[in-house]
Every structure is written in structure tokens, then in C-alpha cells.
Amino acid sequence: MARIAITGTASFLGSRLLRRLVAARGADAVLAVDITPPPTTLQGVSHRMVDLTLPGADRRLVDVFREEAVDTVVHAAFFTTPRRDSAYAHELESIGTLHLAAGAAAAGVRHLLLRSFTAVYGARGQNPSFLTEERKPDADSRLAWVRDKVEAEAHAFSFSRRYPGLGVSVLRFAALLGPGVHTFYTRLLGRRVVTVPLGYDPLVQLLHPDDALDAIMLALEKGPSGVINVVPRATITLLTALHLSDKLVMPVPHPAAYPLADLWWASGVGEAPGGFLDYARFACVADGAKASAELGFAARHSSREALESYLAYRFPEAA
Amino acid sequence: MSAQAKVVPIAGRRRSKRPEEPAGEAALSRRVKELEAQLSDVQRSKPGESLLVALARALSAGAGGMTWTNLARLQRAFYFAWHSEQTDEFGADARFAEALEPFLEFLYAMWWRVEATGTEHVPASGPGLVVANHSGVLPYDGLMLQLAIRHEHPARRLCRMLALDMFALLPVLAPLLSKSGSLRASPENAERLLRQGELLGVFPEGVKGVGKRFRERYKLARFGRGGFVRVALRTGAPIIPCAIVGAEEIHPVIGKADWLGRPFGLPYFPLTPTFPWLGPLGIVPLPTKWSIDFGEPVDLSEYGPEGAEDPILVNRISESVRASLQRMVDGRLARRRSVWFG
Questions:
Q1: Model confidence at B144: pLDDT above 90
Q2: ipTM value > 0.90
Q3: I want to staple A257 with a disulfide (CB 3.0 to 4.6 A). Which of A118, A252, B32, B67 is the partner?
């Protein structure tokens, strides 16, 4: 029987997807590939421990995929929150995807689905109001976080070109926000005072995790479909979102904010390096037309609903 | 919270009416919808109320009440007093435009005494591309053009302006423009909007026009690379030339100190008789007399979308639009007797 392997089952999206696939297709249909085993409450799910960062991981993956008769791989082992040891993040995301794509191609896997981010387009003042899938991702970003994701996508596509049997889907998700999400930007929402660049109020997209899972399920049914943006129904401006969460907003002139944020990050206090301030200055809004045309995907939640569901989960006493 | 509190009496009234109108379930639901619309109108017409309430609460609590939560609430009330909670898909904010309107109207009617002619050439519905000459250092001409169509055209259409990159990068100005219905000038944006049947305003001179020196005033700069013609050809939208006279003199650029602007990401740094010598006073524009003239629409549908792939044709159309716009500007200038009184 053909099975679906999921990498990064300890990640937020990976673990939710594992649960949903077990509920939909049964424990036999899935295989968890991670360095930590799946939760014991998910009984009967087979687990293979593979460290994607180790040399030779691709050979081990070929064995695993062949033995377990895997025909579809969902690659969800990506960091949403930037890590201070960027070398490890690079090994896992860029090189790990290289290993995974090599193993999948050699084992005759049919479909490799990558979890990616709309943030790979980069936030720039020059962006059009809607970024379509044809737009080149920002390979020269100053953020290693973005560069690793762009490299991972490129590795997957280069293997797909050389081994036509391996089809690739890359789902670029907008920033996830909803019950259970825990990232660097939700940590900012946990503070009383949030600093923002002075004089900017860009549109942002906040995607409810349920919508993200729906999109993955649809993409698994449809098969390889290239790059697809997965976005919520409506956008929200950054300051609207912060004020709806009752934060005190402290504006800082952006020429000072970048070095300060970098300093804060380097000293171990900040949540993210200064490059992320771009996303608080300029819009990075992706167009979801391809997802609805090709996957039949329609987000059930707007950005505001995603934010409200998160606030109700995180601050139940305020509601 | 207040929405719920206000809905209750209406529901009560509705229930008491029910015996008198047994047949009209549909009529009733229509009536409820009407009342709800009225209610939301009432709520919208008092945007400042919650701000006043928040202020009063903060003041009555005194110094002891200045907690983080109260400050955040005050800031939130202040923000939503002039921003709506939901913008449209391109970021235009109806309440923000409403809040900004008195100021812009003052500039339009009192400061520059704008005289708009030929608004009948602007289509009442469907796509249209308004092509205007750019001047005035800051994008006042775009805001005034928007207001001219909003006020003097019977359909009261929103003309979305395509703004220069540099304005989309500058703090304060960037959100101001995008919330009042401007977008970054890019072919993707223009094509998407025209396909949706929107009215669009462009300044093909771009940065070469807005920052030109005083001695080059009213001499139209090169028209980019004809991107606006390609978009009009592809979408079949008519081009409406629009001559703006008066904006060149609001900030006469007598010199440039571009090296000063570079660290701030500005492509140029203008020196005017008042800026930067008078400090903040220097950004007050001079009260010239403006005219905004819309010309005959240019219909490009005979060339079809494939015309966009023909660079010679695109250049020719672009040049002819530029020439007719220059003629319109020259004609208005010849009739103008005074910079200040028209």
C-alpha cells in the first residue's frame, strides 16, 4: 500500500497534519520521519528516526522509503522562528531538503510536497499589491532564514527536473496564526508594548492553521502542482492587528530600528534579527488565485478571524 | 459590545410588531436589514465617540489609572477614530479617506482653488487610464486629481493613483497614500485594476517629472518606457489625458542637494526658496491657482491586445499622448495671466 511520509512531525504543522491524516486515512497510511517520535496518543503510527542533517541521510531515506512503500513525502521540517545557530538551520532546511529530494528521487517517490512561506518573496516597497507564483523568491535576502527556504525550494525543483518521476509541490503559506501557534511573532503578541517602525502600516496576511491543513490535504489529492500560494480570505493592516490585540504600539524611526533590532538579537534578547523589520514596513501580500483555480481551495478564515481565534486561545480571560 | 446593546431594543420592537404583519416574513427580514443598515450608519457617523469615552475614562482615573492597559486602550481608540477595521484588498481605507477629506478639501477649494474642466471625458463606469503630468515635489497633484474626479464627476468614482516607488518607501507618506487609494506603480497592479474595471491615474514622467527644476517647469519629461500604453492596449482601457497646471509652482525647485537625500533613501533632495531654510514652514506649499483639465479620451481598442507586443507602435502612441498633453498644458499656460489668480 502506498504511504505518505511526513518529515518534521514534531513541528506545529507537521504534527497537526499527522493527526489529520491518521484520522482521514488510518494509522497505516502514514509514516513519521523525525528525530523525535510522534506523541504516544497516536497509536500505531510507524516512526523512522532519520536526521536529515547527517551526511548519508539520503541513502538512509532511500531504504526507509523503499521498505515502507512510500509514494508521497510531505516535508514540513522548517523553522518558522529564526534560530541563532543559523548553521544548523541551514543544514536542516537547505541541505536537509537536498538529502530528502535525493532520497525521494532514488526511491521512486511520486510526489514531494514542501511546506514553504510567502515571506520568501521578501517584503519590499517595490512589491506589487499581489505577489503571484511567477514572482521570483528573494534569493539575495539579507535574512538567512529566507535564503535557506529559497535554497530548499530550488533543490526540490532541480531534482524534479532531473528525475521527472518525482513531482514537486511547494505550498507557500502566509504567516500562521491561530490556536496552538507559537512563534517569534506570537511571542511579540505576548508583550504589553510592541515596537514598530515609525510611519508604516503594511497589509499582512494571517492564515488560520485549519486552512493550511485543508490546502495540504487538497494538494495531496491533486498531486504535484508546482508552487502554490496559500493565503487567507482577507488581509489586515499591521497596526489594526496590534490594536485589536490591545498592544501599546511604540513607533521607532526605522533607520534606528534596524541596528537596534540586530543588537537586541545578537545580545540574545530580541525575538528576530533586524531584517524582519522589512515585513513591518512593506507589504508582502501573496495572490491566492492559483490555489482556488487548481486545488479548489477556499480559505474559511480571514486574517482577522485568524487573529481573533488566536487571541481567544491565548488570552481567554480578556474575551 | 455597544453593537449588541443597541440591537436588543430593535429586536424587541420587531417582536411586538409581529402580530400585525403575519404574512410578511420576507418584508420583516427586509425591515430588519434596513434597521441594521441604519444602525451601522449611526455608528459610523460617530467615529470619535469611543475616543472621547476612552479619553474621559483615562482622565477621570487620574494618574493612578495610567496603566499599560488603559494606555493601550486609549491608543487603540485613537487609531480606530480615523482608521476602519477592514481595508479593501488594495489597502484603501474608507474612514481614513473620510478623515483626510476636510484637509484635502481645504487645499482643493481654498488653498489652490482648483478649477476642473472636462470631467465628462472620464468614463462613468468601466476601466479608464487617466494620464497626467507630474510636478510639485510631493504627490499633491495625485491627491487633487483624485479629489477632482471624486467631487466634480457625477459618478463620484475613486480614481486609484499609481504612486512612485520612492513615495511607497517613505515613512508616513507610504501608508497615507496607500490608505487613500494609491498603489505602487507596477504593470501587475495596473493590469489587475483595469481588468477589474477600475479607474486608474498614472504619471508616466515618474520621478523625472515630480522633481524637475523650476526653469524646466511645464516641459514634460520623457514618458518612461511606455508601460502605461502597453497596459492600456492589453486591457482595452481608454487613455484620458489630464493637464495639471499650477502644481509646478507650489515648491519651486531652485537647486538640488541629492547627496543630502541619499542616506535617507531619497532619489533627490530639493532646495526651494523656503525649504529647508525655514524648517517645518518650508514644507507648506505655495498657494498658486490650479487647473485640472481632462481631454478627449484616446481609444486604443482598434490595435487590440497584440499591439502591446509591438514596441514601435507603443512608442508612437506614448509620444502622441505626451505631445497632446504638452499641447493641453501649453494652451492653459497661454490663457493664464497670473500664477496666483489664474
A1: yes
A2: no
A3: A252
Give whole-number Cα distances, A319 to A180, A246, B51, B103, in Å: 17, 12, 21, 38
Residue A232 has pLDDT above 90, yes or no: yes
Distance CA A156, CA A94 (A): 10
- Read off the C-alpha cell for A50: 532519520
User: What average pLDDT score do residues B144-153 get?
Assistant: 93
Residue B217, CA distances (Å) to A72, B141, B249, B267, B309 in order: 65, 14, 8, 19, 33
Cα angle vertex A163, ends A224, A8, to 5°? 55
> How many structural domains comprise chain A?
1
Domain boundaries, chain B: 2-82, 94-250+285-335
Q: What is the pLDDT of residue A1?
A: 56
CB of B266 less than 8 A from some CB of A = no
Question: How many whole angstroms separate alpha carbon A176 and alpha carbon A212?
Answer: 8
Question: B66 CB near a chain A CB, below 8 Å?
Answer: no
The Cα–Cα gap between A298 and A127 comes to: 24
- What single letter denotes the amino acid at residue A299? A
The answer to whether the Cβ–Cβ distance between B89 and A199 falls below 8 Å is no
Write the residue in B86, B184, B188 that is nearest to A234 by C-beta.
Answer: B86
Q: Which CATH architecture has domain B94-250+285-335?
A: 3-Layer(aba) Sandwich (3.40)
In a domain, A280, yes or no: no
Taking contacts as CB-CB distances below 8 angstroms, the residues of chain A near B170 are: 199
Q: Which residues of B touch A304 (CB under 8 A)?
A: 85-86
Selecting from A127, A236, A248 the residue whose C-beta is nearest the C-beta of B72 gives: A248
Q: Which residue shows C-alpha cell 504627490?
A: B139
Contacts of A282 in chain B (CB under 8 A): 168-169
Query: pTM for this one?
Result: 0.86
CA separation for the pair A109, A2 (Å, rounded): 10
Cβ-count burial B26-35 (b if 16+ within 10 Å, e if not): eeeeebeeee
CATH number of the CATH domain containing A220 = 3.40.50.720
Task: Name the packing angle between helices A96-106 and A57-67 (round to 10°).
Answer: 40
